[in-house]
Structures are given as structure tokens and as C-alpha cells.
Amino acid sequence: MNRRLLVYPLSLLISVTHLFGQKQNNTWCFADRSEVSFNTGAPVSVNTSMLYTKAGSSSISDRATGALLFYSDGDVVYDKTNAVMSNGTALGGDPTCQQNSIIVPDPSSTTKYYIFCVSPDTISPAAAGKGLFYSTIDMTLNAGKGAVVSKANFLTGPVTGKITAVQHCNGTDYWVLVIKWGTDTMYSYPITASGIGTPVKSLLGRVYKDSEKTYNYGASPGLNGQMKASPNGRRIAFESAYYTANDPFSDIKFVQIYDFCQTTGMISNPNIDQFNGFGYGFYFDRLNGLSFSPNSDVLYVCSRSTRLLPSPTVDTLVVWQYNLNAGSLAAVLASKTAVFKKVQSEWDIDDFQLASNGKIYASDGINIFDAINSPNTLGAGCNYTMNVFTHFFNVSMYSSPYTYGLPNMIDGLTPNPPLTVSLGNDTIVCNGTVLNLTPVSSGGSTYSWSTGASTSTISVSTPGKYWLDYGNGSCCYKSDTINVTYTAPPTVSLTASKPSVCKGEESLLTASGGTNYSWNTGAKTDTLTVSPGVASSYTVTVSSAAGCAAKDSITINLKPSPTLSVSGSGSICKGQSLLLTASGSGTGYNWSNGATSTTTNVSPVSTSTYTVTATNAAGCTTSDSATVQVNTLPIAKITGDNLCGPLSEVLKASGGSTYLWNIGATADSLLITSPGKYSVKVTSPAGCSSSDSITVVVNPLPVPTVTPFPIDTIIKGNSVVLSAGGGTSYSWTPAAGLSNPDVSSPTASPGTTTTYIVTVKDNNNCTATDSVTIYVKDIICGPVFVPNAFSPNKDGHNDVYYVRGNCIISMDFVIFDRWGTAVFRSNNPANGWDGIFRGEDCDTGVFMYYLDALLRDGTHFVKKGNISLVR
To answer: Is 707 exposed, middle or buried (0-12, 13-18, 19+ CB in 10 A)?
Structure first.
């Protein structure tokens, strides 16, 4: 693949790619300590900024999170903690200028930035401290809060108070744009990974003169008015003004619109709209708000006219909209439409700024935002709305909230996608072929072919070199080249190893003459092995390296096969034999068991398949097979036990489908009552049979014994051991209340009177049962005893006073002194009184008690009386 080399005015070999995402502009710091965050979409006042300025500022946020990184008024830069950044003073900008600074990422690093600051002047060369300056910031320093590494580096002067930045066409570098005062020249500084390059100079179409102002009569020159780049980087617009010194009320304002080339940094196609003054007492005195829509197709400008006489002063403010897609330059100016108008005394809009939520916000001179809610929409549908948001404003420095500027930012919300284009590898095609050249491309919309065509695809039919310039409509383009060569088709040769084959026999087809092969069977190799069931034709398409193709075909014929059939297949029982016979038109026969005659006698031990192959005079063969199913003999089995005492027993036969016992019975089970030898013949469904026998004897029944220990009557909640004997294994029922129902002596804890039955089994598997009944009675509670005296003298005898009773469930026991004071209270019989009240021993005396108790048998016991405490 060939590439055409494009030479750009700056390096495209960049190691770090900046994606200027929406969150980079999410936090605004401006005015007097005003800070607004757009991280949730809608503006939110944060109130932590340390700025004190009525004019311009710049700020930048983390491109991934939207968190504030740093901000500046052109002279001082503050870090994200709102402290002055290390080495962050005297940057060279004029804080009273509406656009005093702009922050640009360093293309060589994701953690380094430039701050470009302007201090306007009307003297050339610029006075000391005036002009365009830059400083560099490294955010890896000072624990991530950043530090100014180099500052106040002079670039040029004098300049106006307007500055903006645009992303380069390569999606990585940037351009920083300023206007040289007293000239008609725009300076575009390339910002690359190598640093700040030599500025590209282009003409504006108007000369900035020393008498030029950008706001009211008497103000310093060049401080106000905005210059902005469209979000897609394809246009530049700014506000300017001119007045005659002898007639300050002849003020003339201009809106200047240009195309911008993101590749070269040049402006072109000047389109200047003039706003004329209206004479003494009424004139356009300010053009202060300017912004492009998010889609870059609409421009908004704010003008204010002031009537000075007669009094009172009245401001008429108008928001104008330009349709940048209206057509010619004149049509764009003619599309100017007033989308908002307000007449009010002393009222102003000082700045427009596009936010990351897609809305344009206007600073109304105080601490209130207006908004253009749908800026991509033409006409009144853009929805200009007053007073949509009030932000924090510090009035400590000024008597009332008042501000001119919003932060100056790169409105790169919709940067140009990177351009990619490929025409593919150089190609060779066949003579007479029409080739469609369709590029694989992205990021652009315009096509310029070497043939002069401007379509996305062209068709060619002659050899040669073809190239395409692919662009995005803003002088950004990339190119690719392809060489097309024409050639003749290949000569095909096709042969077969066997032109005729028997059924099932293979023939190898071989093709030659090209580099690629495609058979009608789907194969893609130069050879093809075939085994047709009928006479068949095979076609191969042979292609050359150039993609030219030719075809050839060959037919493979089929020889006749002998007829063949096999009889005698069937089923046998294991140990039997079967005769198999082959017949047909063959002249010779070969069996899989080695036999070579038309018949073979087989006696397989398991189901087997026997194959015979017949051969005719043409050498072709036919095979057939017969399967001999070998049925296994049934496994006859009798199950059953010996007789236990006088009881009967059932013998069970298994293994077949029919049964014949030696006593003549034909069922699979046999009831016996006497000892002896019993046998059965078992036959399978296939008719195969086998036999089994069993000898039955009579065993005595076991004699079980069962006794409770120690007694058969217990109080509810107690237990008793059940003891059984007379066998080798035991099983008790019911199992409820037993510690283990499968032992000879389980522990029984029944809740009610229960009869337990034990089944005893001996070594002959004979069983017998016995039983025992355990009688359960409810508990009988004893008396509740309340002593009438105790002696807490710590001699170890009668030192603690307790309520005695074996059935107390709950109680309330209270002891009172003679004045009725409760000196002790307990609800637990285990807790007694030790004669101490409030940490001191009580004196000898008589105390009263009250007892209310509930017993286990449901008795409600109440008692009261006297207690003698003796020491």
C-alpha cells in the first residue's frame, strides 16, 4: 500500500493523545469567589473559589472526573485546594481583561498544562509587562496539587485582550490564537509535544488601531469582548470596536467571523458584521457576549445600546443569532435574528460560555445566570431564559455582587474525530474488469480523487496509480494511494488418475495453471479426491495472483458392481450355531471370518455381524452382511429364608420370564410350610433357560424378655431404662421418647403413659415380639417455705435469706423496713437477701415481706409476714 506524504506546519508524531472530553470544562471559577460545578449536569454553586475579579478568568478540571484542577485570573493561579499554587504569582496577565488567560493541555503529557495570559497594550513594541505570556504547570508536583515550573515567558506584543485555543486537526496538538494590536494579523501558535512553535500569521481584513476600544467611552483599550473557536474547530469569531477620538459617540462595533484551518492554523473567508452607533445619546456601546452552539452551526452575540439622554439611562439588550449554514458570507450575515430583547435601566450581559451540558450560559452582570437552553435550534426555539441560576458571590470586597466575565475555556465539546483512510493494498485485476475503489475511512466527509471525482467511490478500468485526499471540510485531510495493474487470465490443465472407477473407489483429480483453485464441490485445493456413486462431472475454477479466473471440467465414469444378498441371519442361544448363505452375480466370495465359499457355519459367543464381499469380472466388489444375535442364558436365582418354627416362608425365583418348580408350580414365587430341597427352571423371552435350587430347614423362634428399670412408673419429665433380651438385634416402637430404638436397652422419656413393643431377631433371622407399659404421672409440688428469721453475721450459717420451694416458676418477693421502704426485691428463688441495703448492713429488727409466686403445677401462691434480722 502506498501513502502520499502530507507536510504539516507542525509535528504529527505525538506520544501522548489528549481527548478533550466534556468533563474538562465541568468546574467554573470566576468573579469574586464564585465557583459553579456541572458534574451533575445542572449548575451547582460550590462557593470555595478564592478569585477576586470582576473580569476574566480561566479554569480546568480533571478530564475523567470533572474535579477542579486549578484556575487563574491571568496573574495568579490557584490549585484545587483554593490556595495559591506553588510559584503561581506574577504570570503576566491583566486581571481586568475579559479574556486574560486560557489553559491548554501539554500534548506531551497528561499531567502538564500551559497557561497563556494576555496584558493588552497599544504601544509597539509592547511596554514592559505587556503582551502575550505563557507559564507551564506540572500536576505531579506538590502532592498532586501542581506547581508552576516556568512562568511569565514573553511571546509577543502588543496584543488585544482576546485569546482562544483550538484543537489541531490531528486530535492531539493545539493552536493558541491572539490578535496583534495595530495590525490586521492573527497569530496562531502551534502547541505540540515539542513545545510552542513559531506562530502562523494570517490577515483579519481590518487593522486594529490605537484608538480602538471594545467597550464604553473612556475605558482602557482592548480589555473587553470575546474571541471564541467553534467546538468543531472550523470557525473563529470575535467582537471588536472602533470610535473616533473627536466623537466618542460614533462608536462602531464589529462581529468578525472566519473559517479556521486546524491543519495550517490559518484563518480565511472573513465575514464582518458592522453594528453602527446611533449618534449622541443613543449608541451601541458594547458587544460583550459571544458563543458558538455545541454543533458549531449557530453563533450567538449580545449587544447593548444605551440611551443617555433624556434621563433616566435605559439599556436595550439584544441577543442575536447567526445561521452559519445559511450559505454565502452575505447570507450568513443576513440570517442575523434577534432571539431575545430586554429594555431595562442599567442591565447588561457581560459574557457567554458554553457548558458541558450543552447549554450556553450568560453572566448578567451580577450573580445570576441566563441560559440559551437549546442553542442548536434556530430562532426563538433556542429558548433564551432569564434568571435560571443564582450562584454564590462574595460581597466582602464590593458593596454588591457584580461581575463581567465567565471563565475562558476551549469549547472542545465535539472535537473532530481522527481522520483515517485506506484504499487497501496495491492490486492486480483481469483484463476487461471494472474495479470499484472504495476507501475504508472514518472521521471525514469529503473526497478528492486523482481522477477529479468527489464521490466516495470511483470505478476504474485502466492500469495506473490512483490517489484520494479524504477530509473533514476544515482543510484537515489524509491521503492514500493504490497501484492498479491489469493482467491476462490463467491457462487451466485438469487430469484424473482413474477416468472410470468402481462404486466406492477413489480417483485423484489434479488442476494446475494458477495460484488459487475452487471446485464445484467447495474444495479450495489444487487436487481433489472423488468417489462418485454415479457418473459425475467436476469443474474447477483456477485464479491467478491477479484474481483472473478460468474454468475446466472432467467426467468420472462408474463401472458396474455385482449383485449380492445374504440369508440365514437370526438369533441363537449362547452355545448354538447358524448357517449363513451368500448369492448373486459375483464370481468369488470372501467372508469376514475367512470362509471363501457361498456358505459358512457360525457359532459366535456374542452378537456378531458377518460380512461377505462378492467380486465380478470387472474387478468391482459388493459387500453385504448378516447379524447373528446371541441371546445370553438367564441367571436363575432363588431367594428366601429357612422356616422359623411353625411359620410359612415364601421362596422367590428371578432371572427369566417363565418359571417351572420341581413340585410343578409355574409362578415366580412359592409358599412353603415344610423343609426340603426346592429347584426351579428359568426361561428367558428368547427361549434360553437355566436352573437353581435351595434347601430349606426349620429353626425355632427366639424367646424375648423385657423389663423396665428401676420401675414402670415415672414422674413426667423423668426417664426409665427398658431392657430386652433373647436375640441378637432389637427394634422398639414407638421410637418417640427413646434414646435409640435399635438397641437392647434404650432410655425412655415418654410425656404420657406409653406401651413400648420390642421385636427381637436371632441369628437365624427368626423374630418374636414383647411389650412393656411405662406409666407417667404429673409432678407433685412440695410446700413453699418462707423463714421468719436469719442472722447475716457472716459466720457461714443462715447468712442469706431465701424463699424455699421446688416448684417455683416465677415470683415477686419484696422485703420492707418498718417505715415501708423496700430494702430488697427478687424474682428468682436463687437470689437471697444478705441484710445489706444501699451498701450498708441493716440493724437488728423486724421486717415485713410480701411473696407472690406461680408454681409448676399451676398453683398461685401469695403470702406475707414478718422477718427477724438478728446480728
So the answer is: middle
User: Which of 202, 182, 200, 205 lies closest to 190, judged by CA?
Assistant: 200
Q: β-strands 527-530, 507-512: how paired?
A: antiparallel
The x, y and z cell numbers of residue 398, run together, are 464590593
Rounded Cα gap, residues 202 and 609, in angstroms = 97
Cα 786 to Cα 805: distance, rounded to the nearest angstrom? 9
Provide Rg for the chain, Cα atoms. Answer: 55
Strand locations in 38-111 (E): 44-45, 58-61, 68-72, 77-79, 101-105
Separation between Cα atoms, residue 20 and residue 11, nearest integer Å:
19
Each residue's pLDDT tens digit, 200-248? 999 998 776 544 444 333 344 455 689 999 998 999 999 887 655 555 5
Task: Say if residue 334 is exposed, middle or buried (CB neighbours under 10 Å; 0-12, 13-18, 19+).
Answer: middle
Evaluate the CA torsion angle 404, 407, 410, 411 in order and state its sign: negative
Residues 131 and 155: their CA atoms lie apart, in Å, by 7
Give the pLDDT band of residue 9 (cuts 50, 70, 90): very low
Grid coordinates representing 725 are: 433380651
Q: Are 161 and 225 in contact (CB under 8 A)?
A: yes
Residue among 817, 864, 820, 824 at smallest CA distance from 843? 817
Residue 347 reports pLDDT greater than 80: no
| Best CA proximity match to 412, nearest among 301, 302, 270, 262 | 262
Q: Mean of the pLDDT values across residues 246-252? A: 55
Query: Look-up: residue for cell 432389637?
Result: 730
* pLDDT, tens digit (0-9, with 9 covering 90-100), for 592-642: 999 999 999 999 999 999 999 999 988 899 999 999 999 988 888 888 777
Q: Is the pLDDT of residue 280 over 70?
A: no
Q: Is the pTM of this model over 0.70?
A: no
What stretch of H or E contains 153?
Answer: strand 147-156
- Asked if 156 and 187 count as a contact pair (C-beta separation under 8 A), the reply is yes
Question: Which of 53, 209, 189, 198 lies closest to 122 in space, CA to CA?
Answer: 209
Tell me how far apart the alpha carbons of residues 474 and 332 are, in angstroms, rounded to a whole number.
18
- 156 versus 686: which is more confidently predicted? 156
- Of the listed ranges 27-31, 332-336, 413-417, 746-750, the least confidently predicted one is 413-417
Give the integer Cα–Cα distance in Å for 862 and 854.
9
- Helical spans, DSSP H, in 621-715: none
- Residue 330's SS3 state is helix
- What are the residues facing 775 on neighbouring strands? 713
Report how far residue 68's alpha carbon sits from residue 52's, in angstroms, rounded to the nearest whole number.
Answer: 18
The answer to whether the CB of 194 falls within 8 A of the CB of 11 is yes
CA distances from 351 to 46, 94, 324, 486 (A): 20, 17, 21, 63
Q: Is the pLDDT of residue 398 over 80?
A: no
* Most confident by average pLDDT, 268-277, 334-343, 710-719: 334-343
pLDDT of residue 293: 96
d(CA 91, CA 79): 14
CA nearest 833: which of 819, 818, 820, 848?
848
CA separation for the pair 161, 330 (Å, rounded): 28
| Per-residue pLDDT tens over the stretch 641-663 | 777 877 678 889 898 889 999 99
DSSP SS3 for 366: coil
Instruction: Find out whether the peptide bond into 407 is cis, omega within 30 degrees of 0.
Output: no
Location of C-alpha cell 494579523:
185
Which amino acid, 569? Answer: S
Cα–Cα distance for residue pair 615/459, rounded to 1 Å: 63
Other residues' Cβ atoms within 10 Å of the Cβ of residue 598:
16
Output the pLDDT for position 210. Answer: 42
Specify whether the backbone of 654 is left (phi greater than 0), alpha (psi in -120 to 50) or beta: beta
Q: Residue 481: which of 420, 426, 428 has the closest Cα?
A: 426
Asked if 352 and 291 count as a contact pair (C-beta separation under 8 A), the reply is: yes
